[in-house]
Amino acid sequence: MEFLGSLSNIGSVLLTALGLGLVIFIHELGHFAVAKWCDVKVERFSIGFGPLLLKFVKGETEYALSLLPLGGYVKMLGQDDGDPSQMTSDQIARDPRSYPAKSVPQRMAIISAGVIMNLISAVLFFVLSFMLAVHENPAVIGNVVPGMAAWQGGLRPGDKVVRIGYRSGNKLDFTALQREVALSSEGQQIQIEVERGGQRIKTYVEPQRNTQNTDELFPTIYTDAELSLNLARMADPKQRPVVPGLAAERAEPPFLSGDQLVSVEGVPLTSFTHFQQLLAQHRDEQIQIAVRRADAGADGAVTEITVDPNPFRLLGLRMAIGKIHSIQRGGPADQGKGENRLREGDTIVAVSAGEETLQVGRDIDPLRLPDFCASHAGEEITFTARREVNGGKPTTVVVKLTPEARDEWIERPVDAIPNCPLAIASAGISYHVLHRVVFVEEGTPAAEGGIKEGDNILSLKIVPQKKEDGKEFPAVEEKVSLGDDRLNWPGAFLLMQNYPGHDVELEVKSADGSTPRKVELTPVLSSDWYFPMRGLRPTPRRVLTRADNLGEAFSMGIDQMYSELTGMYLTIPRLLSGRISHKAMGGPIAIAGTTFHFAREGYGDLLRILAMISVSLAVLNFLPIPVLDGGHFVFLLWEWVRGKPPNERVVITATWIGLAMILSLMVFVLFRDVTRLVG
Known about the structure:
Structural class: alpha+beta
Radius of gyration: 30 Å
Number of helices: 14
Strand order of the largest sheet: 6-5-7-8
Oligomer: single chain
Distance between the termini: 12 Å
């Protein structure tokens, strides 16, 4: 566990414990204060669980503090969740200072006081956090996965989100977008407005959650926040912020931990997206990247680093092209009408530019279609496609369109997403590439490995390879399964690019249906096809958000409070329906770990997470479950409406059921916490 792993973290550990203890203390203080105000005898005020650290008696109340600041309780005369029958004891009920002897409104005030105090403190924590400043990911789009929701909606890397649903403003952050998406309902379309090149563009996206991918815990639109221009600070001083074996590792002089990217070929960089665009424009060239070293200061001298191009690693295989997965809203392919446009489900069989016509698969690798279209940006291209017709023979459609000037392989497929397509960004088309071999180039690793036309590739696995110079790359366990229901060849191909110095093991099934065999191949470098990325490891882009004055801090705090409160109430039904995975739930260990992380970021970030925990505690505590404050409140409402308490047997039975539910939930979230730690 990171927060227990170093003595240098002791300050953050203490802040974490004090912060969590403070949230619990405020909740219990609400019950305690209102109980005292209503002249109820408080027998015990306890914070924490586990070994007792401190205990003393003052007046009629015993005060206790335990080691683990993850809970607490106020024990009032005549009120005991562990023995609910005590609430109806005649002897206690006759004591004017007992909890049952008080009026229903007084008991409602006592029961709800903890939740109210948590909500009040949450607002104060939020306001203070925005006065101090918090770290946030700006609401700028980073990678957009081809064919997925964000891509279909026309979002692009570098787009600045200025409105998400009802939320807008200069201080909008990427977390707001993630929250809106994660809490969406099935089939809901979210309106998004972005700023691109000085223009505002409105679109809508429909969040999705692929239950086949166990890593997807929430609905998503498959986009990330933009990265920064700062390279990673490596924990080991001997390590450098580069991918072993790629061009950046061979750069001279070397990239160092904490370098700031300043320019490419003399062009000053404005963002990481801009950096990627310049790399794509110079993909086949040796380039000069200027960096400012971490110890040079904000205005320090820059260092020019020479970086070679990064050729694609190839096997000599051409796979069959699959159907068009989606057409990007607002893209060139979306401009036609009726039969004069490509549709989802069409299969591109040929492309033509001028006098040149290429059959897809035989003359051009489907993976190289994006580069072909980009090289003809501004020119008319003819697509010939096969279209299936219900109850009839497939027809051939011919569509002309003009690609935009867009850089390809910036929007990259992801091997972990089943059926992730490849995109022609310049045309606004995403399409599948199948696992069936249609052509094997002579003299290539695939040909030497005996792979033939018609074979099916069932999986691709990364295998360590020992270099002739003795350099060894770390072993990895990366494997992509392929098939009719996992059209992941683009993702598998891209995965292969990330592991130079490794062979690939293909599981091959011949067209004759014989038993699948394994073939180990060593990829070779292309002589004319280059991957834009050079193998650098940037950090996430983080900025400090601070309110300009107290009024703005209060406004931001109220807005954040409303967002968290509604978010919690929306999360519960989505967990119950499976829209959000139960694996997303966390217990005390997860809460402590998250709080520790924010404590290391700064006081503002710590106060912000404490505010979020306060809201969560308030909402969960007021759920209508016996044992919880909300359950007690329901019983009080019954008594208020009916003029008498509910039947004692009903109260006792419901309380034990509620206790069993809470204990079961605690066991489950603790199990999830432990699973994360050991997994």
